[in-house]
What we know:
The structure holds three protein chains of three kinds. By secondary structure, chain A is of the alpha+beta class. Chain A has helices at 59-62, 68-76, 83-98, 104-133, 137-157, 179-202, 205-211, 219-225, 230-234, 241-244, 270-294, 348-353, 356-359, 365-375, 379-383; strands spanning 19-23, 35-41, 44-51, 166-167, 170-171, 315-323, 326-334, 342-346. In chain A, β7 (326-334) and β8 (342-346) form a beta hairpin. The two termini of chain A are 35 Å apart. The mean pLDDT of chain A is 88. By secondary structure, chain C is mostly helical. Chain C has helices spanning 5-10, 14-46, 62-71, 83-99, 118-125, 128-139, 143-174, 179-184, 208-225, 251-275, 290-312, 320-348. Chains in contact: A-B, A-C, B-C.
Amino acid sequence: xxxxxxxxxxxxxxxxxxxxxxxxxxxxxxxxxxxxxxxxxxxxxxxxxxxxxxxxxxxxxxxxxxxxxxxxxxxxxxxxxxxxxxxxxxxxxxxxxxxxxxxxxxxxxxxxxxxxxxxxxxxxxxxxxxxxxxxxxxxxxxxxxxxxxxxxxxxxxxxxxxxxxxxxxxxxxxxxxxxxxxxxxxxxxxxxxxxxxxxxxxxxxxxxxxxxxxxxxxxxxxxxxxxxxxxxxxxxxxxxxxxxxxxxxxxxxxxxxxxxxxxxxxxxxxxxxxxxxxxxxxxxxxxxxxxxxxxxxxxxxxxxxxxxxxxxxxxxxxxxxxxxxxxxxxxxxxxxxxxxxxxxxxxxxxxxxxxxxxxxxxxxxxxxxxxxxxxxxxxxxxxx
Amino acid sequence: xxxxxxxxxxxxxxxxxxxxxxxxxxxxxxxxxxxxxxxxxxxxxxxxxxxxxxxxxxxxxxxxxxxxxxxxxxxxxxxxxxxxxxxxxxxxxxxxxxxxxxxxxxxxxxxxxxxxxxxxxxxxxxxxxxxxxxxxxxxxxxxxxxxxxxxxxxxxxxxxxxxxxxxxxxxxxxxxxx
Amino acid sequence: xxxxxxxxxxxxxxxxxxxxxxxxxxxxxxxxxxxxxxxxxxxxxxxxxxxxxxxxxxxxxxxxxxxxxxxxxxxxxxxxxxxxxxxxxxxxxxxxxxxxxxxxxxxxxxxxxxxxxxxxxxxxxxxxxxxxxxxxxxxxxxxxxxxxxxxxxxxxxxxxxxxxxxxxxxxxxxxxxxxxxxxxxxxxxxxxxxxxxxxxxxxxxxxxxxxxxxxxxxxxxxxxxxxxxxxxxxxxxxxxxxxxxxxxxxxxxxxxxxxxxxxxxxxxxxxxxxxxxxxxxxxxxxxxxxxxxxxxxxxxxxxxxxxxxxxxxxxxxxxxxxxxxxxxxxxxxxxxxxxxxxxxxxxxx
Lengths: 384, 178, 349
């Protein structure tokens, strides 16, 4: 039976004007099942405490009982919006551990798939950001273009959102025959729609008023908290893993690192983070065009270097890659058997969310929603 | 001055946005009216290697349980009975080899399946395949457990009995020899 | 009353009164159905999709489906809600929205109540909506609804002021508050409409910028009065789920819904009467019979309803303090300046 408990409150210490509001796990604007406990003084936010764990699926423990190829479907389901980028650091690290050298054609296909997925992810980020602001139409324009990308992924791998496509040592399947033409068509459509969305949403005075000078993240705070990705680059720090520590064949491509410059407000506000994502879509288009032009046609067999049995030697590695949301890392400890000893994911959104209580003090509730949208979090990654 | 500039900017960006939406109002619409006028499978738009419902061809399956071991979520359950030499009319498998095991239960629970297609990669006879069928919702979760075995329960019991009789016969022979 | 064709038909007996009440009521109900369908379809076409297609031919029976769905829903009342206020709020809002139809002239031969303070009456009755919203928000016993209701009150009261200035300028220009007189002064074709300065010599070209800015001020403030995007803070959606009508379901929610659409037509009608000639045909005397006049009036008002729907799906939402800034620091000064200019023009005309 429950015992009767008395709660002792010292009423002289209770703040009479502050109101605690719960933006519960079910809310149209928290991007997933995130619970925010907001302390309000009128309409001004004085403290935010995020509560996570509603989507915890015990990945890391389950993966200890799976063989190495069986871990890949689980990794897909972490950041379910950009699955191709999720699989890449894991596969890269395993190949280094086992000493497998992947043919060039595979690397080119991996780069194209990852960049297409980056475009798809940024389309969702910008679309849902507009939705939080109240603009319903750009959401549909961007999702219509995303359909083309998902269709291409379905032809290549069989799945629309969760692919199981990057395998240790190669790919699951070869690309469809009209792959190069479809990629170039996608690039053309994405550029056209982006120009429209720039005029309709990003350049709109009301949108600028909502997002400029809101949620300013100074560069030193960002580095201290360890945020990466467009959130860090929006504060003016030009740190992109593809340029700083190039992995795979990224050193062969010519693209810029987009940095927020505070064009419409101060450096590091929501508008800057958003414009970094819009412009990164253009950079991804450039990379895709160059990769399609440079891609060799041989060898056709994408499973040439896939090992029959995956039994890596004893050891550990930490592999990282530039996820659309930031730096995604995998720390894997192998004890020489067919199953890993420990799989640990350094999730991007988990670290990015930690900066929310710091940058939302002093703004209103409406701004809190915009700040949360501009951080671009996915609860699947935070809770794993 | 800033004040007037803001007003002019507000009006002009609104007008630009309105022009874009007006263009879309009279433009082409992208909806496919499913299922009345359009069906992805019948129109051939769905890719042939799309990973949807699994199908197991029993004439190729001989109960090696490789798919079971490869599945990351343990959604396949297999029960087999060895083929006794005394059994008559044992059909050949679809690649011409002799059948070694009867598969009396091959159940895939589609509520658990994650459609990763790892089971199709490891099957030595390609008996398990992914089809493009995606319209198989049910009201009852138990109905999503598909049993692909083509032996009725009586036939399964029959096969078990034959195997057990063969085992008994062998044991008796060995005792006689001693 | 003399110019009313129903009066000429029936004389001063009870049938006259009943039919006079019935016509706007039927019009509002039919208009609400068309407006719901229009909103769904126009929103879909802007977003490159087809919208409702399965109810009836290409989806035209969708509003009837919506109404039937709302009627058959369970009527949920929160446990600690103030029952009297909770039940009364939607009906007060609808009454306020519908009462304005008494003074709207549909043609030169039909206005349900010919008031000589018609302009003032419509403006005053529009304030009923505020009472309905506050009652709904308070009686719901919900923190978010209360927040929405408070924001709604501050928004609607602040935006009444630019509208008041705009209507005052029109009254100064026309010299009367009677709606039929205001429209009669705009006869003679499109050049004589108040948006182009009204009936007068060529000097009125100097005043056209003022009339156009006044029209923009009036239209923007009426968007705020009807709680449409970019001013739909009371209905929050992304932030406070649904604001003051979060807790309503079934017929009461349908009443809020209807009241919003009825309000949209009222403000569009007011804009056409004040600036675009009401039921006057743009060709002067050509096509100016009483039946054609009502067609002109309804089509002009429906065009402005279409513009309101179009704006909803184009623009994002304003924040509460920015809303207040726009009202007090942008719309009110501009309306004041235009008021001075137009009263001067009304004087020298």
